[in-house]
Design brief:
Chains A, B, C, D, E: It comes from Salegentibacter agarivorans. The structure is a homopentamer. Chain A is built from nine helices and seven strands, in the order ββαβααββββαααααα. By secondary structure, chain A is α+β, with helices and mostly antiparallel strands. Chain A folds into two domains: about 250 residues, Beta Polymerase, domain 2; about 60 residues, Magnesium transport protein CorA, transmembrane region (Methane Monooxygenase Hydroxylase, Chain G, domain 1), CATH 1.20.58. In chain A, α7 runs antiparallel to α9. In chain A, about 45% of the residues are buried.
Chain lengths: ~350, ~350, ~350, ~350, ~350
């Protein structure tokens, strides 16, 4: 059986029907397990990081004059998330979107904060994970809500801790940019993997004997590309709107970075569409491969049958038991017949050679 | 015979020709039967629900300081609907669109009210129903006109009765939003069903022996997706216009909810297009499956014929009745011939093995 | 031979080259015959209808305080049309477009009148007719120029005569709307016919033995859809511009009706594209049908050949005339051989059963 | 060998690389030969036409108060064209575009003149010619530069000479309109030819025995349509910009004519896309034709083999030389066997009849 | 094995993940080797050119009142590039994009300079090279950063040295235009090569015996076109924005040239899409070629089998050893049988002739 890339990309079913809008129901992967909270407080001079498992504990870490990054892993404990939502005065619809892991990427502007939904694509234990993530960008805080533990932000954490680059001197808007940038950078990794898969399949088709399973692998690749595309493409519009937002939360000096991010997401999108078209082409190649093979099979059959069926007929003639067949008595008949048969055989071979079937 | 999903989705014929515009002719499913009226009167403190079969009766339930939701099931009794239209001063074209079940989703702004047409997709008795529904949103009333009994609003009714969520404290615009939200939520269910169908067919194609009927099932699925798409896609534009309307009927606090609704309809649309592309891919997979099977059939034929036709020819040679065939007299001819035949047989097998046909 | 729908839809050749623009040359179906004139004069109280064959006669029917609808059937008598054009002061380019039946639908705004070109699709003597029609909408007159007798306006004529609906109380703009509405209503009929054709062909493909002609029928249907599409789609833009025109000729109360008309033309267009996609799908279905049939043919051949070719070989062995074939003398050889053959036969059957070819 | 339409449509290679922009290098068909100049001077009352071979000669024909149309045939003599360019103060980039016959259609607005590039498609000596043409529209002059002798302007010349229509009374803008109109009118001729080709091929496919060359003819037609499309489509935008230009060179009364021209180019474009889609459909039809033929061939083979292979096996049985075959001695064996064979034969025929293969 | 065009077009992997934005990491072809610097200083009267290997050396060549073109070949020595960036005060994101050779074409406007990224396509040692190039356009300087030695700018260098054309009298904006123009001119060469490849493959398909490798060549061509398209298309937007920029760096007189450049890039893009569509069509042609060949093979088999299988059956009949076969004794049986066989043979030939299989 073919191992499918797409299996881990499949999304859970949609939010439950007949609930009022704003109902906070967790819809996601069952294994998301415990909710854990990580608080990173920083400014140019200071950096503190705390792990906690209750929201109340977490709040006390917040210090003045610092940017606070509040990262929540695991969305099944909706009570904690609602507590956090109350503390930061989040709109009920935001809370609903945070825990609804089927929500597509979007950006919403509220009075005091921006709300951004995205999808992280990354590898964990050799599987491709499609993880729902939400951002709330406030004046001096950033909240991130992830479906489960494990993310693509270790680079950002390291730069925060070691004060590497501009990240500690810039505001909360730069932090959100840096996190989105990390997400988009990992898209490149995923797309590179797709491109390798395309090229591997292509190599197999260039060989003369691709396995029959290749059609399923191609279909699976096509599907994987469609799903990755669906996670990535809406973010293009989100970043474009993020780029053009007239909002005090986003400082001018961050704009250049967001421009750059927009370039990157465009590039990922173009790559996805390129590999998509190539993957579609693979199917065509496979069809011609099959047709060519069938053609070859038919030629072998036709050549064998066309040569031996007439010869068998001739042999059949002289196997008849008529009493008066004059040739039967002649001494050299047998040898002459062999000669005739060899001539017919050679004529057939010549005919097939001229038709380039041999 | 294949059971088709689409049968119940087929729309009746268009409105009758040669009628002046604004003519109120019921065009719809024959079985829609009796017209029944349901009046729900509510404000923050009170809630009343009445069922009636005559419009005049219904009017008396209307109370002051309350929002009135007037729900009509069954459109064949056009007289009652015209009475209602007169009472609420509806434009004749609106009445025409209410009873013309082929009308596509749209939104029209009139002086005192908004008029919205949509399609409900839901399951009833294991069949997928595509039901025409119209909304009239006034300052303190909402009229809904459904083609037949049965709808997707039980959740909304429950929340109204139990004052659950914000529904009793918000205005008529929120009620229309809640009803549209219920419709879109049910689209998700329908789309999930399509996705399961896609995956089921895919599983069958992964097996080596899909039934021949699968081509009709794929076509039927493609058609079902096209029809669902046609019911859903125009609503995207309707909700987008609903979202951007500058109209006193829609309060600011409801806007966020409509934004959210717009996100959902976009998500449904994207899903539909994803499954559509997958369904189209199924046909390709099926074609390669057929070609592969034909290839296999041809190989079996070619191998059998290529091995036995030459051997039969050799046997035919020594079945000839010539008087002078020297080999016939030699004692070991028969055994030597068996040897030759076995060698030929093995060479053929080797040849086919090397060609990877065996 | 297959009867083709499209034949009657084919347009004549384009206007003759090397003529100055504004040259009035009739380009159309030869059979359009005589030009006949119909004048309908009406206001709220009065209604008169005259048939005449000369323009001069017709002018005298015009009465004050009334709307005049001047309908010309047959465009080959260009002199009469030019006379009319002079009377109403029409721009030469309009006259050219009136008699050039290949002109695509359009709307042009002139100082004192609007000029609209459309295509009527309707059935006449069991043939689908694609007839060129032009409208000139003035303050108190409407001119319509039709390629030939027979049209889709009998419903409008009836309502005018019997003062049914709003048609006698509204102005010339409402009359043009009513005529366009009649045209669009007939599009629905044509599209319904296409949908029935699609479904009929589909039924045939669901049967196991569609005739070979079906491929021509599908192609013909595809072509018919393309041609209908080409007659209908430009009108979408025309009506959209008609709807948004800031022009005193179009009264506010007519706007709602034109909105409605725009909805209808959108709906026709969507239906056409739906049936178009279905028609394209039919070809795919047919191809898989052929492939399936070929597969079945090949299986029968392979089974017959694979069973009997080896058996014939065995029979051939013992038909050889070697003097020393030990088996020939043994008394039970014949019966043993039958046994062996039956075993081989059964093994083959079992093999094909397991491969699900039987 | 198939005669290809497209050969004469192929464009020469692009302008030579490593030249500074504005370099005047002739890039075109080698056979364009001599440059010849034609000067037409006209106003309402007067008309003069001169042919000359040197630019200096030509200038002296220019008269006051008249419109001068300066038409150059042949672009290889770049010196003469540069002289003309200096005289009329043309920008160097214009001169480059005039002689670069690969330049796509465009319109450029300069201070004192408009520059328009288009492609003429017409028949010359039974070949379809794609000729590069440039227009310079000044206040009282029009310059046209053609790649070679022969054009589509004889109708315009005739109307100028005979003062037929409005051409002598309107300005230079009307002349450019008239010339573009002549070009677009000839597009209709070319498109009609394509449509006839589509229909001819379709007729051939309707016959049961299309030649194998038809696939090349279809491909050639598809290519021809692509090339015509490429010559025609950019002009659509050019005329649309021409129509909307706010420029004193274009008088109001000419606007209506340009509108009309825009309608025509839209119509040509729609026709091209219609025939394009039909041409693509032809390939599908051809593929099903091939598949149907193959199906028929296979059926004949299968029927013949399925009937005679078992019968031959039976005959083979009784050709064996076993000493104890009881049937051989029985007097009626031979006749009974014939009976059995005829029964088998009839059963096979019945089986194939029921499968509708016969 | 098929030589593939695309191999040299493949881009390296994306920039390394987990780096802060603005990190200067070289991502490119390993062989880019040494960094070399070329400084060209010029004004109307003077011209100087220096080659240096250190940035500091290079700075001293800069003279007043002149335009300086600073060209860097080789991006792996990031330290030198950062030095240059500091000298010209370039934003860190620009430096990152300069050395990230996977960056797609773009244009960014900064306060004192414009930043443009493009891709050069040209031939070097018979291989198609896709080289990353960045431009910084300042008031009196132009910086160009190339991935490796070798470029398409020799024509520009020659015109600078020999003061040919307008290049020495116009500003830095004209120089950037001239360099971009050289890049686009080379696109034409690449596209011409693709067009020749398309035509070569087409010729091969027109022959009756295209090699089986042609399917890989077609796929390779399709891929090459996709990759060239991806290098070229984003530049279309870049030049369009360059054209419409309101920026003091771009003088009015340069605008006309940029317009012209925009025309050229549009033309390249159209050509690419034309050849793309043709390349897609090649696959269809190949499929019909295969089908036609298979058809022919099948006909030969069917004819041979249909003629000789029945005749062999007849011979088998009279090879049976029944004791009572009356025909065997009759003297002329053998000759009559030959007659019967010849008649059957001729009937079969006639049948196949009538079916046009022969």
């Amino acid at each position: 059986m073919v191992k499918r890339i797409t299996q881990s990309l499949r999304r859970p079913k949609m939010k439950s029907v007949n609930q009022p809008p704003g109902t906070v129901t967790y819809v996601g992967r069952k294994e998301s397990g415990e909710t854990s909270l990580e608080v990173i407080d920083y400014n140019k001079e200071n950096y503190e990081r705390h792990i906690s498992s209750s929201t109340e504990d977490a709040f006390k870490f917040e210090a003045e004059d610092r940017i606070t990054w509040f990262n929540i892993d695991g969305l099944s404990n909706t009570a904690e998330i609602e507590k956090l939502g109350k503390y930061y005065d989040l709109h009920p619809l935001i809370i609903e979107d945070i825990v609804n892991t089927t929500q597509r990427p979007k950006i919403d502007e509220y009075e005091d904060y921006l709300f951004i939904v995205a999808k992280m694509l990354y590898h964990q234990d050799d599987k491709l994970v499609n993880e729902h993530i939400s951002f709330v960008l406030g004046k001096d805080y950033v909240l991130t809500f992830q479906e489960a533990g494990g993310d693509v932000f270790d680079g950002v954490r390291g730069r925060l801790e070691k004060a590497y680059g501009r990240i500690r001197t810039n505001g909360s808007d730069y932090l959100v940019f840096a996190l989105l940038d990390a997400i988009v950078d990992h898209y490149f990794l995923v797309v590179d993997e797709l491109s390798e898969k395309v090229e591997k399949l292509e190599e197999q088709l260039f060989e003369s004997q691709p396995s029959d399973d290749i059609t399923y692998e191609i279909q699976d690749l096509k599907r994987a590309i469609l799903r990755v595309r669906r996670a990535v493409f809406p973010l293009k519009e989100v970043i474009s709107r993020f780029q053009n937002l007239e909002n005090d939360l986003i400082k001018t000096r961050t704009k250049n970075y967001i421009n750059d991010l927009h370039d990157h997401i465009l590039q990922v999108s173009e790559n996805i569409d390129l590999y998509r078209e190539m993957a579609w082409g693979l199917m065509d190649m496979y069809m011609t491969t099959i047709s060519n093979k069938m053609n070859e099979v038919m030629k072998v059959l036709t050549i064998m049958a066309s040569i031996f069926i007439p010869l068998t007929f001739i042999a059949g003639i002289y196997g008849m038991n008529f009493e008066y067949i004059p040739e039967l008595q002649w001494e050299y008949s047998y040898f002459v017949l062999w000669g005739v048969m060899i001539v017919i055989f050679l004529l057939m071979i010549y005919y097939f050679k001229r038709k380039k079937w041999l």
